[in-house]
Amino acid sequence: MARGLAKRVEARYVFYGNFLTDATMSQTAQPNLEPGRAYRTRDLRRWSANPTRLARRLVRDGKLREAAHGLYYAPVESRFGPAPAREEEILRAFFGKSRFVITGPPRWNALGLGSTAMFAATLVYNTRRTGDFTLDGRRFLFRRVLFPESPSPEWFVVDLLQHHEMAGASLDELKEGLVATLRDARWNRHRLREMASAYGTRATLALVERCLAAAGPVS
Question: Which residues face 132 on adjacent strands?
Answer without folding.
Answer: 141
